[in-house]
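Can't paste images in this forum, so I'm doing it all in text. The chain is below; anyone willing to post the predicted C-alpha cells underneath?
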Amino acid sequence: MNFSSFDYFIAVAEERSFTRAAERLSVTQQTLSAHIANLERELGARLIDRHAPLSLTYAGEEFLAYARRFQAQRRAMEQEFRDISGDQRGLLRVGVASTRGHIIMPDAIAGFQAEHPQVTVSLYEEENQDLVQLLREGQLEMVVATVEQDEPGLVVRKLYDETVVLLCRQDLLERYYGDGVEAAVKQAARYGGLKALERLPFLLVGERDVPGSVARDAFVREGIDPDIRAYSKNAETLAALAELGVGACFCGSQLAARTFPDPEAVGMRIIDLGEGAALPVSVAWRDSAHVWSMIAEFDRALRQSMAGVSDVPAPRHA
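Text version of the structure:
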C-alpha cells in the first residue's frame, strides 16, 4: 500500500471534493483518482460514494481513522529522527481558539521563529473543543485551549488563567436599567451571575468555545431565557457589534482590554462576572514515548511571551 495514498485519501475525505483535494495536494485529479481506486481494490471495499455531494461510506469512515493514526505515527517517526540527526526543520501545526489567537500567538511565533527559522508554524484557529479533537486525531502537534488536566492521552500544562467578561455600551445598559445600572453591574460581579443583567440583548461566540460555554452554562443555571441578537465564532466581530450597541458580548478579558484600552472614552463598559468566570488556558500535546523537541520549544516560547500575563512559571525542558 503506497504511503502517499493515505495522504490522498485524507485530503479527499476532508475536502469532500476530488477537485479541491487535487489542488491542495498539487496533483492531477487523474493521479488522485488512481490512488483512491487502488486503495479500494486492495481493501476490497468502496471507500467513497462519488455521487454529489461526495461522501464517505462506512468503510471509508473506518479507513479514515486508520489513515489519520498512520499519518500521525509517520509524522512522529520523522520528527524523532530529525531530533536524532539534529536537523530541525519541518512543519509545526498549532491550534488555538479563534477568540484568543491574535492575542497569544504573534509574540510567541516571532520568538520561536527567531530561534528556529527552518520550522514553519501553521496556525489553526478553531473552537476550543474542535481543537482538542483535531489534536487527538493527529492533525495538530499541539493546542492552546481549555483542556482538563487529566485528559487521557494528552500532556496538559497550564499556561494562564483567562477571565470571561461582558462587554456592553453604557447607553445600552442605561436603556434597559435606567438609574439601576450600577446596582445591576455590582450585583453581577459580587454574585458571579447574569441574573442581574438578564434584560440585556446578548451576543454569543460558538457553542464549542469557552466564553460561549460560560455564558450558556450561566443561562441554564440561573433560569434565564436570553435575548440573543447574534452568534459568531469570531469574538472580535462580536466586540465590534457590542461597540455599535447591538448587544452585550462575552469575551476574554485580554481581548476586551486590548480592544478597549480606555473603555469609558468610547462609552463602553467591561463588566466583571465574578470568580466563576475564570478558566485555565493550557498548552497540550499527545502523550508519546518521544515528543518532538520543537513542541517543547514552542511551549517555552509561549510561556516567555505570556510571562507578563501568567503567574505560572515556565517549566524547564530537557
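The CA atoms of residues 59 and 177 lie 58 Å apart. The radius of gyration is 23 Å.
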